Amino acid sequence: LCSRRFSFGFAFWFCGNRPWHLALGGLCLGGLYLFRQETAILLPGLILLRFMAPTRGVLWRELLLVAVFGFVAVFPWLYRSWDLTGDPLYNAASLLFHDTDAFPNWTSSRTQAILEMSSWEFVSNNWGDVLQKTAKNGFRFTRDLLLLPGIFLLPFFWLAIWPKRSETRFPLTAPFLLMALTLLVVLSPLEYAPRFLAPIAPLAILVAASGLMRVAENKTQWLQVSPRVLGLLPVLVVGLALATYAGSLWQRSAEPQGTAMVALKDLDRGVAEDGMWPLLLGGVLLTDAPTLYAWVWDRPAIWAPVPEDVQATAERYGRTGVILTCAAGHGDGLQADDLRQAYLSLVDQPPLDQCPTVLRVNR
């Protein structure tokens, strides 16, 4: 929700023609970058969008103003990451891949599993699961592509793609459809994440903007549109909105534990009530979400996505405070229930049975 607000704020202020408009747009862009660093993929398209704006001034000055205020918003996180890692060039993601003070002697069981088996070998041994995942990811990417310009820009987007017979399509429509189809084919067998569609998001906005300009040029445009489009647009918008809302409700009901941040607040409250803070302050944090927890818990932490990592780390550090978390999804081939039971069984085994342990199972 916060990233959507930052996106709307950035798009709103970035289209302004005053310096303070661009300054606010830069702050929103920096805030959006904090939520998703992949936002940087949007910059080439945003530069193109600004270049095509009819009210633009000196382009390099405007972009410099946006960049400066974007850095102002990002600087606190960069400084905190510098403090955690000891290197100004490390970012939050570096906590997963480097041996730092926050993550000493870091090893990843997932990386080891990837090195032990080739991709082709995995596909040949699990072709049924791969096909099922590809179909599921393809449906999700298709849904996101249909909603890509945003729910409010969607009607104008389809006006540009599906014009009247007497009008020509927007010139960038064909490249957009080709890029969308390419991403759909390439990404579906791999992994689903809406951010993977970021490279074509600026192009979708330009296509929608062309439809908006057609409406602005002729105020009676809505009355002259083909009845097929007028009948399809409300059904498409309402149907996709309801499907997205129903999907979010189903996901919440399937994951009653809530988000990692909610679990962290519950854990914070439980530790304070049990009087375990003195024991945990000098402890080691075992977690599946290090970039989140290392920010809040300023002490050593180890990424432990599988139970074997927890056991080995507990043996290394001995009698110490341990915070245990595990993901509710898949972990190195283990189902969620199996992974959860494996974590729970470790609490009664040495050396974890000799140290104060707080167990939290979350997303």
From TrEMBL:
GO cellular component assignments: endomembrane system
Main location per the UniProt record: membrane
Superkingdom of source: Bacteria
GO MF annotation list: glycosyltransferase activity
Places the protein is found: Endomembrane system; Endoplasmic reticulum membrane
Membrane topology reported for the UniProt record: Multi-pass membrane protein
Keyword check for Glycosyltransferase: yes
Keywords: Endoplasmic reticulum, Glycosyltransferase, Membrane, Transferase, Transmembrane, Transmembrane helix
InterPro entries: GPI_mannosylTrfase
Membrane-spanning segments: 58-79, 145-163, 170-190, 196-217, 229-250
Record carries keyword Transcription regulation: no
Protein's UniProt name: Glycosyltransferase RgtA/B/C/D-like domain-containing protein
